[in-house]
Amino acid sequence: MIAFHNLIEALESAPDSRPFVTFWIDEDEQETVTFGEFRRRARAQAGMLQGEGIAGGDRVVIIMPQGIPAMTAFAGAMMLGAVPAFLAYPNFKVDAEKYRSGLAGVTANLKAKAILMDEEFPEDMLGYVSLGAGTRLLRAAENEIAPHQLARCTIQATDLAFIQHSAGTTGLQKGVALTHGAVLRQLEHLTTALKIDAAADRIYSWLPLYHDMGLIACFVLPMACHVPVVMQSPLDWVMHPETMLQAISQHRCSLLWLPNFAFQFVPRRTPADRREPYDLSSLRSLINCSEPVRASSMGEFQKALGIRSEVLQTSYAMAENVFAVTQSEWNAPPAQIWADGQQFRSAHRIAAVEEGTRGAVSFTSSGRLLPGHQLRIVSDSGEPGDGCVGEILIKSDCLFDGYYNRPDLTEQVMVNGWYRTGDLGFVLNGELFVVGRKKDLLILGGENIYPQDIEELVGSHPAVHDGRAIALGIYNAELGTEEIVVVAEVEDQALLDDAARIEQEIRSRIVAGMGVAARTILLKSPKWIVKSTAGKPARSATREKLLREHPELNREEVRQ
Amino acid sequence: MTPEAGQMIEHIRQLIRKPDIAIEENTPLVSSGLIDSMALVDLLLKLEDLTHMRIPAGKVQPKDLDSVAKMFATAQRVGRPRK
Fold first, then answer.
1. How deeply is A338 buried, as exposed, middle or buried, from its count of CB atoms within 10 A (0-12, 13-18, 19+)?
2. How far is CA A196 from CA A118, A187, A226, in A?
3. What single-letter DSSP state applies at residue A421?
């Protein structure tokens, strides 16, 4: 990787006839392009963009459905030295109003020279694309385009390669600007840690291209490292999660990344009697990434689908660092430890105990730092040392240059070259354990409570929909401390008739598992919880919705 | 009204827990706030069942599912026969 100056040089060196992208619609309908064909189509897109006056440094926003045309447009823009950015394509699951306001904010900030869309982009959304002076609205040509003579352009390692957006609710996403050099260094570290063999490996992905895990691990890495990838649309996957097993089985895929919730979602949506035909023996790395890792979720997938435990791996990653910061050891399950729950909550310290000890809490390692990376754990009282929880700060040779056009936001997160992740974690035996988001931490009478621990207990109740529970701390001025409020979606609307009993059972589970009491438990109908663009429950947006619908919960007014 | 459209209406009544509500083939569902966009995954799966088609979800926008009549028209437009 280091041998290349930029990503396009890496793409140009791929063997012509090696398969690159197989876009999977179903078992009968799939399209495969080789690296040679991909390059030809990318050049055609580059020629079209060049003809429209796009040149080096210009931002090109791509709003197209997941697929080969979107990917060739992205590579085509980079061939000109332009800076592409994928934005989410509107779909039937996304609230139109929210999508429009997010689109307007993000497109305005990028000040793009061109916004590239497909022919079917809905007319009613067009008015919300922010077209500043000098911004062109272009429709990507899907059909055959005559080969273009591209102007020669020199792309330096220090030039911006693309902008990827951090995960978050639409509109609050920040554009992370990355140079070719930073991306290539990340790929060098990641392919070494994962022992990627371009001739033998094949990646599978349903992850959206507008988030780092889908963009870096499942498009840019395969493109620059010449690894075939089997891809499907996130929407097709969410409708029929079982298709993931079909695609892996049919194409003998060896590597994939999934967020934690998918480890439960896939087996729960694939009845036991339908799992038998799928052969997942080709998998060598199934990496849990992008949400706090839960050993129970990984165990559920492993047990239901009969994969070897050493296939399960973990990684800690973020858009600001291109992608991965840590990676667990290859060919071994990630380390899991148990610690005294009381020490953890009151002193933020990890005191190791035996598995099964009463009141113990368990953590799963996210692995060791990639080469070229440094990490600090910082608490209010300084740097507390190994086995103590604090905010994770990172420094690396692939860290971003800043949020695009937002020096104010960049300044908030950078301290002397260190990036403040906003995540809490601890280091033990050289491995990083991530415990949650700093801003989500609940503080109850001096004890630190992680909402994910409560949510896991709530989610274990059979009436609660998989992963659809949120625990929030709401300050009670009378008591001078936060109180726990839980909102959970029931599996089926009819269960709401039995709400009082279910609430009581959930309350008992929380007390038994954590030794703390929830003030309020609210059961809601399916789909009530607000989701982020990544499909995860969005904590702050759900909090706002909850306080809007239940103003009686808000006892923060007299906080001063 | 086809039997399939009738079954879809019944499914929607169950989904929104309003068994007695009047829903016709052309009653606006999403734009009227009767169902939210998140419920549309269920409706799309039901539509696949009723039409024996596979409907590529990426080609569907909320307005395509705004009434029962539009749902079946969308299935005809973008759906493919399922094996």
1. middle
2. 34, 10, 10
3. E
Closest CA to A509 of A460, A449, A452: A460
- Going by C-alpha positions, the residue among A532, A504, A438, A491 that lies closest to residue A264 is A491
**H helices present in A385-461, as ranges:** 407-413, 451-459
B-chain residue closest to A529, CA distance: B38
Q: Which residues pair with A23 in a beta bridge?
A: A31, A231
Residue-wise pLDDT tens digits, A507-520: 888 888 777 788 89
ipTM confidence: 0.79
The secondary structure element, H or E, covering residue A504 is helix A499-514
**Distinct helix (H) and strand (E) counts, chain B:** 3, 2
pTM of the model: 0.84
Give me the DSSP letters along A464-492: EEEEEEEEEEEEETTTTEEEEEEEEEESS
Smallest CA–CA separation between A64 and chain B, in Å?
Answer: 10
Measured between CA atoms, how close is A358 to chain B, in angstroms?
A: 40
Q: How far apart are CA A180 and CA A400, in angstroms?
A: 11
Interaxial angle between packed helices B40-51 and B3-15, expressed in degrees from 0 to 180 and rounded to the nearest 10: 160
Report whether A470 contacts A539 (CB < 8 A).
Answer: yes
Determine the Cα–Cα distance for residues A543 and A549; give it in Å rounded to an integer.
10
CA of residue A502 relative to chain centroid, distance: 32
DSSP calls for A170-216? TTS--EEEEEHHHHHHHHHHHHHHTT--TTT--EEE---TTSHIIII
Residues A158-167 have pLDDT tens digits of: 999 999 988 6
| Most B-contacting residue of A92, A100, A231 (CB-CB within 10 A), to test interface | A92
- Tell me the chain A residues in contact with residue B15 when contact means C-beta distances shorter than 8 Å: 493
Q: Are residues A484 and A444 in contact, defined by beta-carbon separation less than 8 angstroms?
A: yes
Phi and psi angles of residue A58, each rounded to the nearest 5 degrees, phi first: -70, 140
Rg (CA), chain B: 12
Q: How many whole angstroms separate alpha carbon B7 and alpha carbon B25?
A: 11
